[in-house]
Amino acid sequence: MRAIVQRVKSSSLVIDGEEYSSINKGFMVLVGITETDTIEDIKVMAEKIVKLRVFEDENGKMNLSIQDINGELQVVSQFTLYADCHHGNRPSFTNAARPEVAIPLYEEFVRYTKEISGTKVVTGVFGADMKITLTNDGPVTIYLEVKEGKVL
Q: Does 123 qualify as catalytic in the annotation?
């Protein structure tokens, strides 16, 4: 499982010209799932994201988590995180999980993230053409990967 975590001041997601979801200060998280991902991987990733201390404390140090600041999360499925560009210039997406595998894991990731974070968690729509507008804060952008229950 892969994730791109962006610390944002705000983020909004539009589908078919209509705002579908939005957040204020928090994380915009792009999530990629591969065929070998498990429920354990999903939980490890969610726990890592919720505990990331990348928000500034009173001394200006990145020392606070999303829970500490009562931040919000926007979680969007993005199969292109598993793009393989080793051969040629056209990416292959064969490492991305098929929808029948990815959708249940994505939904469990969202459910579990809501459960453990205690904060607002919104999503996009799996497989939809989404337009995301965000104001990156910092910028702070972190790449995470979990495999076999371990953060790589």
A: no
Give me the sign of the Cα torsion angle 130, 78, 51, 120. Answer: positive
Low-confidence spans in the chain with pLDDT less than 70: none
Give residues with Cβ within 8 angstroms of 23, minimum separation 6: 8, 10, 11, 12, 72, 73, 74, 120, 122
In the residue annotation, 79 being an active-site residue is answered as yes
Its pTM stands at 0.93
Q: Determine which one of 6, 74, 78, 119 is catalytic.
A: 78
According to the model, what pLDDT value does residue 86 have?
87
Provide the pLDDT for residue 134: 97
Cα gap 85→71, rounded to integer Å: 35
6 labelled catalytic = no
| The predicted structure's pLDDT at residue 37 | 95
What domains are defined for the chain?
2-151 (3.50.80.10)
Quote the CA–CA distance of 134 and 62 in Å, as a whole number. 20
